[in-house]
């Protein structure tokens, strides 16, 4: 922190990257001023980064959290920095396993997951939403709502208002854009305003942006989140963060790399026998574990061939 003061004395101002245009970022300064600052194309800066700016020199401050996505070739793409919550959006038709994977990915990145069950205006939603709430309601905050009618959206607003900075993930068509529009009334207006900053004469599209919500809280809108439909997680991440295994935080397995199958001294199997973990959750875990293991083995075989 002493550092920050020095930078202040040398004329640098502290701010937050709120939009990323590839070759430039928009910084919101502590004074409330906003300004575009040029960056190198592969600078690695993302929306949510805290920075200091002196003239045209931008320095990134250490990050609290990073949310990234692995692509099919194993490359890692950073999506946003310093988020503290991740909203997993579901709707009728969301593939099973998506929610568990997304919760694991959020927790592994240090973000607290919450669930939005969207399209509750559809008749087929009620039963599914209730069943999902029955399993996850005691594990993570759960918001059944309709982005289209606005029903049920107020508790989510209230949650975000507590000062959370988050983003939504979900498979295509679940209503992430509709939800963003419902929560950020000025969104369309803001997109229009940003295009005025087209001073480079190219790269006019916003890659990613952070929106302050009326009343408090912030949401990041990143096209890259759309591909999060294929949430990529590792076996150790799954074994540590599977929703329903919260008891592991206090009660650990004998082996650090325990996969909770037949290992001696397994805390998950202990909790199963005492009802601290439900059979239903455990069976779902075993299915997902098998899938993640198969994907990792396939990736390894591809690497050996190289
Ligand atoms: N009935 C109903 N339809 C909804 C609701 N929210 C979104 N939709 C519809 O679902 C479709 C997809 O909505 P989007 O907001 O584009 O979904 P998305 O998740 O952003 O989709 P991608 O951009 O493909 O990732 C649109 O036809 C919406 O009108 C809702 O609450 N109820
Ligand atoms: Zn175990």
TrEMBL record:
A GO molecular-function descriptor: GTP binding
Single GO biological process annotation from the record: ribosomal small subunit biogenesis
GO CC annotation: cytoplasm
Residues that hold GTP according to the record: 118-121, 170-178
SUPFAM superfamilies: P-loop containing nucleoside triphosphate hydrolases
Cofactor binding remark: Binds 1 zinc ion per subunit.
Span of domain EngC GTPase: 78-226
Top-level EC class as recorded in UniProt: hydrolase
Keyword Hydrolase: yes
Cofactor: Zn(2+)
Binding site for Zn(2+): 253, 258, 260, 266
PROSITE patterns: ENGC_GTPASE
Keywords for the protein's UniProt record, in alphabetical order: Cytoplasm, GTP-binding, Hydrolase, Metal-binding, Nucleotide-binding, Ribosome biogenesis, RNA-binding, rRNA-binding, Zinc
UniProt cross-references to NCBIfam families, sorted A to Z: ribosome small subunit-dependent GTPase A
Function, in words: One of several proteins that assist in the late maturation steps of the functional core of the 30S ribosomal subunit. Helps release RbfA from mature subunits. May play a role in the assembly of ribosomal proteins into the subunit. Circularly permuted GTPase that catalyzes slow GTP hydrolysis, GTPase activity is stimulated by the 30S ribosomal subunit.
Homology family: Belongs to the TRAFAC class YlqF/YawG GTPase family. RsgA subfamily.
Subunit note: Monomer. Associates with 30S ribosomal subunit, binds 16S rRNA.
The protein's name: Small ribosomal subunit biogenesis GTPase RsgA
Gene symbol of the encoding locus: rsgA
């Amino acid at each position: 922190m002493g550092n920050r003061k020095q930078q202040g004395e040398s004329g640098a101002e502290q701010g937050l990257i709120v939009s990323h245009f590839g070759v430039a970022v928009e910084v919101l300064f502590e004074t409330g001023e906003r300004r575009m600052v040029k960056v190198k194309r592969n600078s690695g800066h993302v929306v949510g980064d805290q920075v200091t700016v002196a003239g045209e020199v931008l320095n990134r401050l250490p990050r609290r959290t990073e949310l990234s996505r692995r692509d099919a070739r194993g490359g890692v793409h950073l999506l946003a920095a310093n988020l503290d919550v991740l909203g997993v959006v579901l709707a009728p038709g969301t593939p099973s396993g998506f929610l568990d994977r997304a919760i694991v990915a959020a927790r592994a990145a240090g973000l607290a997951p919450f669930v939005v069950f969207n399209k509750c205006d559809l008749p087929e939603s009620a039963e599914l939403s209730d069943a999902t709430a029955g399993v996850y309601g005691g594990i993570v905050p759960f918001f059944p709502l309709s982005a289209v009618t606005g029903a049920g959206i107020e508790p989510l607003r209230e949650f975000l208002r507590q000062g959370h900075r988050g983003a939504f993930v979900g498979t295509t068509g679940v209503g992430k854009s509709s939800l963003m529009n419902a929560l950020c009334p000025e969104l369309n207006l803001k997109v229009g305003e940003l295009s005025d900053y087209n001073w480079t004469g190219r790269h006019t599209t916003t890659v990613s942006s952070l929106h302050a919500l009326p009343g408090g809280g912030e949401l990041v809108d990143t096209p890259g989140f759309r591909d999060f439909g294929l949430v990529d997680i590792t076996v150790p991440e799954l074994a540590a963060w599977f929703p329903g295994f919260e008891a592991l935080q206090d009660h650990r397995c004998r082996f650090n790399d325990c996969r909770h199958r037949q290992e001696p001294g397994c805390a998950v199997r202990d909790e199963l026998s005492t009802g601290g973990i439900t059979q239903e959750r455990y069976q779902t875990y075993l299915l997902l574990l098998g899938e993640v293991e198969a994907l990792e083995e396939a990736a390894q075989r591809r690497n050996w061939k190289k």
